[in-house]
Design a protein that fits this description.
Layout lengths: L7 H13 L5 H12 L5 H13 L3 E8 L7 E7 L1 H18 L11
Antiparallel strand pairs: 1-2
Helix pairs in contact: 1-2, 1-3
Length: 110
Amino acid sequence: MPGDLLTDLELMTLLAVLRRREDAYGVTITRELEQTAGRSVALAVVYATLTRLGDRGLVTHWYGDPTPERGGRAKKFFEVTALGVRRIRGTQRALTSLWVGLPELAGPAV
């Protein structure tokens, strides 16, 4: 099942989509990664990651209404699929298993 595990960027992107809920589009996902995780990622990298996750069936997308402030273009919104949630949980379990019992990592996170 190693192919089922997510990379750090894939995991963080999926978590950011979950956090943004119905407002999950490229810019808000990028901001969530920066503000919550402290990870600065280019918008193009976020979109490439979302495309890869979509190809694997881990996210789905839909388009909102066109807006004048975007020159009449519609925003592309993202949602984590049930399979995506399962992959998040699987990756969480794998990381937690590796983490447990390491004296170097005992105690509160700094």
